[in-house]
Amino acid sequence: MKSRGWKDELWLDEARSLLKNIGDIDTEHPIALILRHSHRLHSDNQERLLHMQITLLGKRMAIEFGKRLPKTRELGLFYSEHPRCEETALRIKEGYEQRGVQAIDHGCVRDLLGPSVKTSIGAELIEFGIDGFINRWANGMFPIEQIEPIEEYSIRIWNHITETARKSKENSYLNFEADLVNSGEISKFICELCYRNCRGHT
């Protein structure tokens, strides 16, 4: 059976497009990306998901992604405490450094793990699924006594990105997180924060 490669996987379409877009951006402009971990097995068991690593395919494709990042950029890596996020980051670093350049491992960042949760959300995740849960979270359907509001969490992610750009010497930053963080709803809030904070700047 032929081994699946970088160009064969449909789930890598966005990653391939992302690499092309990065290559089109002038290296004088810093880039900060929030990325989901690489390929994992499907499971509805929240306890199992918490400790699940990426698959061998996910490891290989993360290395391939790293090999294809532009060598002209200095790369910094941040990741959540989820094992598969750290594994993805380190495999991308491995692939990037195979090209004779160095990436800086900045280690775990608590904010990338997810929002502050005061009481368990496991039952809700199982009942509604990840997408249904995020939609309800974005619409304020869970009490603040249970989970941090999505607007507040998005602000913390935005602050992490801007502080990273201000303090670090690299001009490219990859931030790895799990399914809950890398959602369209959080992306929408972060884009709104970017628009409000960046108007009038070039």
What's a concise summary of this model?
With 202 residues, this protein is of the alpha/beta class.
Strand content: 5-15%
Helix content: 40-55%
Runs with pLDDT <50, length 5+?
Answer: none
Continuous helix count: 7
Task: Tell me what the structure shows.
With 202 residues, this protein is of the alpha/beta class. It has a single domain, classed as 3-Layer(aba) Sandwich (Rossmann fold). The chain is 47% helix and 11% strand. The protein is built from seven helices and four strands; from the N terminus they run αβααβαβααβα. It has a four-stranded parallel β-sheet, sandwiched between helices. 27% of the residues are buried.
What is the strand and helix layout of this fold?
Blueprint: H1 13-23, E1 31-36, H2 46-51, H3 56-68, E2 75-79, H4 83-97, E3 103-108, H5 122-138, H6 150-167, E4 172-177, H7 184-198
Parallel strand pairs: 1-4, 2-3, 2-4
Helix pairs in contact: 3-4, 6-7
Which terms would index this structure?
single chain; about 200 residues; four-stranded parallel beta sheet; about 10% strand
